[in-house]
Amino acid sequence: MIWIGDVLVSRGEGGVYNERMLADARVWDPYRSKLAALYHVGKGVELEPSLKVLYLGAANGTTVSHVADYVEVVYAVEFAPRPMQDLIEVARRRRNVIPIMADATCPETYRPVVEYVDILYQDVAQPDQAAIAVRNSVFLRGGGYLILMLKTRSVDVRKDPTAVFDETLAALENAGFSVLESVWLAPYHQDHAAIVCKKPEIRGE
Ligand code: SAM
Q: Residue 55 CA: which ligand 1 atom is closest?
């Protein structure tokens, strides 16, 4: 990752969402992006130019645009029409962003346009976040990483966030993932945790 002092940045064309520029680089604000927050409070996964990413819950492309500055290609899935318009604009200015208007609970609908990826990144505020990640892991190559941004209140607002967190970790482990890192994103985002997992290597790959 690229740091200028203690400021996380990405190198690409600015002006996506009025982000600040620093020494010709785009400041990646941890208060505006959960992935940026993960790099501040934890380790995350090092983004590199050879990597392919499937991004679920792209919204208006704020975080997508920074990820695209680092990697080869981002398949960006979003189902809401309004943010999709902004996402299309981001894709117009970045040749390596493929916007896909689809429901992440139905990965079969975008199977024809998505290839195997190295990182599956998920940020959808839904009750069944672990199940959505597991369903989409068909796109993840063996040894690839899942980065799940868990919004505990979306799973069950009445439940203790720690219980939701533990249940999600258990669900991912039951699905065969090895959990590498699990951290709360405070003080940048409340009631949000990041879970980084690895998919087992597939024999013969
Ligand atoms: N990841 C974005 C960022 O950092 O810029 C913010 C994502 S926002 C918290 C969650 C997004 O997920 C919303 O735009 C919402 O429309 C989208 N979303 C929620 N459920 C979805 C689903 N089942 N399929 C596709 N997108 C979904």
A: 1
Q: Domains plus CATH for the chain?
A: 29-198 (3.40.50.150)
- What is d(CA 1, CA 39) in angstroms, rounded to the nearest whole number? 9
Give kind and range of the element (H or E) at residue 129. Answer: helix 129-136
Query: What is the CA(123)–ligand 1 centre distance, in A?
Result: 6
Kindly give, in sequence order, each residue whose CB lies less than 8 Å from that of residue 44, ignoring residues fewer than 6 positions away: 1, 35, 38, 147, 181, 194, 196
Q: What is the pTM of this model?
A: 0.96
Q: What digits encode the pLDDT tens for the residues 147-189?
A: 999 988 888 788 888 988 999 999 999 999 999 999 999 999 9
- H/E run at residue 2: strand 2-4
